Amino acid sequence: MSRDQHRSAIPPFALVLAAVGLASSAAPSRAADDDPQQDAAATGERAPPRGTPSRELGTMTVIGRRESSLPTQIPTTVEGIDREQLDLKINAVDAEDALKYFPSLLVRKRYVGDYDHAVLASRASGTGNSARSLVYADGILLSNLLGNGATFTPRWGLVTPEEIERVDVLYGPFSAAYPGNSVGAVVDYVTRMPTELEMHASVSTFTEDFEIYSTEGTFGGWQTSASVGDRNGNFSWWLSINRLDSDAHPVSFANKLVSSSAVDTAGTPVTGALPDRNPRNQDWLIVGSTTRTYTVQDHAKIKVAYDFTPTLRLSYTLGWWTNDSQRSSDTYLRDGAGAPVYNGSINVGGRRYTLTPADFAPSNGDLRHLMQGLSLKSGGGAWTWEASASAYDYDRDLTRQPTVALPAATVGGAGRITDQHGTGWTALALRATWRPREDAAHVVDMGVQRDSYELRTRVSDTADWLAAAPGALFSAFRGDTDLTSLYAQDTWAFAEGWRATLGARVERWEASNGAVSSATSALPFAERSDTTVSPKAAIARQLNPDWTLKASLGRAFRNPTVAELYQGSISTNVIVNNDPNLEPEKSWTSELSGERKLADGLVRLTVFHESTDDALYSQTNVTVTPNVTNIQNVDEIDTTGLEVAYQSGGFLNDRLDLSASVTYAHSIIEKNDAFPASVGKWQPRVPEWRANAVATYRVGSQWSVTLGMRYSGTQYNTLDNSDPNGFTFTGNSPFLVYDARARYESRKWSASVGLDNVGNEEYWAFHPYTQRMLMVDVGFRL
Questions:
Q1: Which of 3, 453, 754, 780 could form a disulfide with 741 if both were Cys (CB 3.0 to 4.6 A apart)?
Q2: Contact 509/482 with Cβ under 8 angstroms?
Q3: How many whole angstroms separate alpha carbon 126 and alpha carbon 715?
Q4: Nearest CA to 76 among 550, 443, 459, 603?
Q5: Which of 441, 449, 426, 573 is nearest to 508 (CA)?
Q6: d(Cα 704, Cα 727) in Å, to the nearest integer?
């Protein structure tokens, strides 16, 4: 498909998928409380396969058998996938791949092992809004809420595909149990915990054919995992280790805007510069590739649990992740002798340009992060409760970069070291649920939480960027935020076929200890605090055994992160480019859903709306002189949309499973006094259309084949939508890609072969996504 076809295409399959789901609602269906296995025994029919969706009023669409960790009694949209379905359908090399076909979700993963730019997008939040979603692993926060954007992504590396038991997603801020960052979605990974001796091992390899601009080659790597666990009486344990070795394609490209100056003969004449147009359709030259990342990531995790009684359990989790990375650059330019050119004054087509050390700067990373969680849970009576504590620590986080130009920098030279040791977050929580009996009319949840975040960044000069110790201070930045919350919510079955939830969350937000330093001075930021109340409400009506209607409403306050609030730099001993009055984002989110239970599946239609005041974006305030560009509040953004989700496992004698979703979102900036040119424009990185579909066919009892499709429509990176050219570096393009997977599984062995992006499409989200990639995996278990 050509670039122009991509831009103009309105997805015809959007209506097709919706029609398929609605037409399927005419299929025969069972009562909501029927047992499929008992039905099969009584009638002689074949029982639905494991993983077929089942549902009760007000709960999630359960794919699989293990209980969700999310508050599923709330009548709102929750989706999930379990281990069996993940293995069967998805080419998963990283943990975030498990979300690949969830309705309305997109992770901007640029390559295998993308550890610092894989942002999660949801219905009304784009891939630049990392702080508008929450990601947990066994209840431990992985979301990096120290900032908002590409470099503050969830710490996906602390979960590996091998250890995932299931993944659940709560759409929207409809549970009082979560802070305002849940405005987009809450994702929780539940990892394995054995009931008997288990041993697993797997090895996989992946390879990609990549060709963009003058970069062409094969990139790839391998991954291996091993795990073992057991339960002995009241004690259970689990140990897993993983190594990922990935040599990825470059994701950035050095460029120069075409000069409008008169012909100039100065500078070294060079060849190899590629003429192109940037997202604003301005002429520019692509002169080389940068940020080609080679990363080796090691991960280990141990989980232990002890049951003091059948209803009282103490558990502890320790996760360890290291990353040794090298990011390199390659120039396309050659001088008259054919030698590569990385720096200095050059001449292209009779115009002069200057290459600086920053244009092709390489960098090396040395990271070691630790995750810990401790919880004590009690249940079995009218009251169930949990006390938990968790911590995420940047135990070592060093990035080295030269200040001298290539090629000299390849052997050393002056540079800078960025050290984030001391950065991290902690969480304390006490939660309780009151349910006097199984069929009680009321289920009451309540809790108190405290989340603390610390950002520490120190940049030092060094004599040798490759190996020398840090020297004199160049700059530093620090800041803390704390969120203390109290919540309560009551889910009430007030009449036959009715269920409602009413709750509220009170949050006390504080920002302190902020400071910015230069080589010669350090200046503090003012402290901030705020108290907010977020009401939550949901209601569901079971119309008959097959039809359910749900409505949800939630308020969310997404407070500024440390990096957003304590922005700015020092100029003439004054902090400049800072907004001390930055407001939190304030969102009202609502949804109305209709669910139709099918014979072997479910179809859901959801209308959603989100109105956000004071959205946090980087923009230029054109109402002041001189103009100021920094993180600012956008007055109002409204998003209205429709989501259609369908899944069934009952085709062709239960051998064919189908799932599909389509999302339409009309997300518009309604008011923005500081930047009037953005009013009436689309919210950045929220496409009008999204869709995906997956079909899996079981060939006998051991083989399966899967075909998948992912689509995203036109989107923009700028608030004023002044970047219509998405198919270039820093652009954001639509895409339609297909995936394939074939899998074999026996009692002890499994093997799979997969292709992502079968058609080898070139598509972008500021950086290029992965092109056609082949994956092969072999696993063994006892």
A1: 754
A2: yes
A3: 9
A4: 550
A5: 449
A6: 35
Residue 536 CB-half CA count within 13 A? 28
Q: Which two tokens stand for residue 571?
A: 């100029």
Position 73 scores a pLDDT of: 79
What pLDDT is attached to residue 19?
Answer: 37
Give pLDDT tens digits for 212-257.
999 999 999 999 999 999 999 999 999 999 999 999 999 999 999 9
Contact (Cβ atoms closer than 8 angstroms) between residue 293 and residue 306: no
- pLDDT at 265 (0 to 100): 84
Residue 8's contacts (CB-CB under 8 Å, 6 or more residues apart) are: none
Q: What are phi and psi of 357, to 5 degrees?
A: -55, -30
* 123: nearest Cα among 144, 154, 102, 139: 102
Please list, in sequence order, all residues whose beta carbon lies within 8 angstroms of the beta carbon of residue 242, skipping any fewer than 6 positions away: 160, 162, 223, 224, 225, 226, 297, 298, 299, 300
Q: C-alpha 79: how far from its chain's center?
A: 16
9-46: pLDDT as tens digits: 444 344 334 333 433 433 333 333 333 333 333 333 33
State residue 27's pLDDT score.
Answer: 37
Phi, psi dihedral angles at 494 (to 5 degrees):
-85, -10
- pLDDT tens digits for range 140-149: 999 999 999 9
Residues 565, 582: Cα–Cα separation, whole Å: 7
Name residue 179's beta-bridge partners.
none
Higher pLDDT, 20 or 289: 289
Non-local CB neighbours of 624 within 8 Å, separated by 6+ positions: none
Q: CA–CA distance from 132 to each of 268, 610, 616 (Å)?
A: 48, 13, 10
Cα gap 664→97, rounded to integer Å: 22
**Quick one: which H or E segment has residue 348?**
strand 344-348
Q: From residue 254, how far is each of 288, 289, 595 by CA, in Å? A: 5, 6, 50
Share of the chain above pLDDT 90, in %: 85
Which of the four pLDDT bands, split at 50, 70 and 90, describes residue 263?
confident
